Design the sequence.
């Protein structure tokens, strides 16, 4: 298998500025069409140029920016790639490539008040995930790294009997382990999520749609402990199988993986006044 195949991939959106957007933005990860991967290696308005990629790698080794698809008003997938070498912070049993919003330093306003987090995921038809494993595709990690206040997972969830691993599951705070919403992970379709996070009342409400459909509320306003500030991650965190104890270092990962996921429409808006964008 060639070097280029040995990658996990994720993708970013190229968005049209014409996309309806009226709420005040907290951060915006929708890339302009003239952005190239190397632009993400230096400080930029979109994503951290340091985290989370494998030791010794640059973001541009993990990101491939493609030209925007003609006629794509809202999003066009651009693969972000990581290799077997993408071992972050000595976590030898994890494979990680995640994008963190540039302004989200763990103590910024993105985890205060009422904010709605938007992102969309699409399967990579060329590089399917291995559903024997558990994957985290989007999550908020608390500032003290002790918990994830929400996680979008897919695959075979560790410690659980996963009925159908080909499912997208939004978990609340992993200390409680509750699934807030789940839906089939269909091929060839963007799955659009918006999570309304109330950092005062400690609640979460999930909105969801497919493709270009408007988002609709798919849960009530649910109690969920979103306290602890922290950082939002978007990407592929592949956990090992058969690990005991500290699974960041123990468990099996096969070599020469070639897996991917596509991301789009990553942004966060201020919903303190109730504003929420329902157009994906
Ligand atoms: C999926 O993962 C398991 C465990 O790592 C591995 O044994 C298997 O070969 C993988 N399957 C494919 C199709 O890559």
Sequence:
């Amino acid at each position: 298998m060639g070097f280029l195949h040995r990658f996990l991939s994720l993708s970013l959106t190229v968005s049209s500025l014409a996309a309806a957007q009226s709420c005040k933005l907290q951060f915006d990860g929708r890339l302009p069409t003239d952005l190239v991967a190397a632009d993400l290696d230096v400080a930029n308005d979109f994503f951290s140029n340091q985290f989370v990629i494998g030791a010794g790698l640059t973001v541009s080794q993990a990101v491939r920016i493609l030209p925007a698809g003609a006629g794509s008003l809202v999003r066009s997938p651009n693969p972000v790639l990581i290799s077997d070498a993408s071992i972050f912070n000595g976590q030898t049993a994890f494979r990680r490539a995640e994008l963190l919003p540039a302004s989200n330093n763990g103590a910024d306003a993105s985890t205060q008040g009422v904010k709605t987090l938007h992102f969309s995921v699409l399967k990579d038809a060329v590089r399917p995930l291995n559903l024997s494993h558990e994957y985290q595709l989007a999550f908020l990690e608390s500032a003290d790294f002790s918990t994830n206040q929400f996680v979008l997972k897919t695959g075979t969830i560790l410690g659980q009997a996963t009925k159908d691993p080909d499912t997208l599951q939004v978990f609340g705070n992993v200390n409680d382990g509750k699934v807030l919403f789940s839906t089939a992970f269909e091929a060839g379709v963007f799955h659009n999520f918006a999570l309304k996070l109330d950092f005062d009342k400690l609640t979460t409400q999930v909105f969801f749609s497919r493709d270009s459909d408007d988002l609709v509320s798919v849960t009530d306003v649910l109690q969920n402990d979103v306290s602890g500030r922290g950082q939002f991650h978007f990407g592929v965190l592949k956990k090992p199988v058969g690990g005991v104890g500290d699974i960041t270092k123990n468990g099996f990962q096969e070599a020469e993986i070639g897996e991917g996921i596509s991301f789009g429409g990553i942004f966060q808006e201020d919903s303190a006044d109730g504003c929420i964008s329902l157009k994906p």
